[in-house]
UniProtKB/TrEMBL annotation:
Residues 1-20 form the signal peptide. It comes from the Bacteria. This is Lipoprotein. Keywords: Signal.
């Protein structure tokens, strides 16, 4: 499995979520433990029947460095490193960078900017630059259950670094403190495939946390 894809998973239809009701308290970074695990279904935006099972497991913790195993479908697991806030290491045009789709503490109204890079199957470099806002508390229903979560909205753009393509992008993320991780992640990139939007959603199927 592509390591950049594994890192992006660490990163993971809006009808299942209720809107925020009030500002709500700040949410701190989770206390992770070895053995914590999460199983997701990844569903393609254009072909709802195209799904992949993704399993994320914490395998080691050393200080602020958290090692996780990511298994996608039938591929061999890939080990990646993150931190207690689920930041991901990435490269943008060959330069190392850190992508934060969660920026703890998650305080309603908080804003930040972050970017990440990836390569497509042909090896072409891309960059996505996002502006995030903590929208506030929301209840969300996924296959694993109904959770009190905090919703983060992301708006920005992607571009192919040779300058030949670019368009808008949106992310909607639901993070549940009781689960220590996202329970739903919707990614949409406009104009990516012959001017049609593309993207995927991750929904939590089951989890085991200490």
């Amino acid at each position: 499995m592509n390591k950049r894809f594994a890192a992006a998973v660490l990163a993971l239809a809006w009808s299942g979520a209720a809107p925020a009701q009030d500002g709500g308290p700040a949410v701190d970074a989770p206390t992770l433990a070895v053995g914590d695990s999460w199983d997701y279904t990844q569903r393609d935006l254009l072909d709802k029947n195209r799904t992949t099972e993704v399993k994320v497991t914490v395998t080691a913790i050393s200080g602020d460095v958290v090692s996780v195993s990511v298994m996608s479908g039938d591929a061999q697991p890939v080990t990646s490193q993150t931190d207690r806030s689920w930041a991901m290491s990435t490269e943008i045009d060959g330069e190392p960078s850190t992508y934060r789709y969660l920026d703890f503490p998650l305080t309603p109204g908080k804003r930040w900017q972050s970017a990440h890079g990836w390569l497509n199957r042909s090896g072409d470099p891309f960059e996505e630059d996002m502006n995030f806002t903590v929208a506030g508390p929301a209840r969300v229903t996924v296959p694993a259950g109904t959770f009190d979560a905090i919703r983060i909205d992301g708006h920005g753009s992607w571009e192919k670094l040779d300058g030949r393509a670019h368009a808008g992008a949106t992310l909607t993320i639901w993070y549940a403190p009781s689960v220590k991780r996202i329970v739903r992640y919707d990614s949409v990139r406009n104009g990516f495939m012959k001017n049609h939007p593309s993207g995927y959603s991750l929904e939590l199927e089951r989890y085991n946390v200490q």
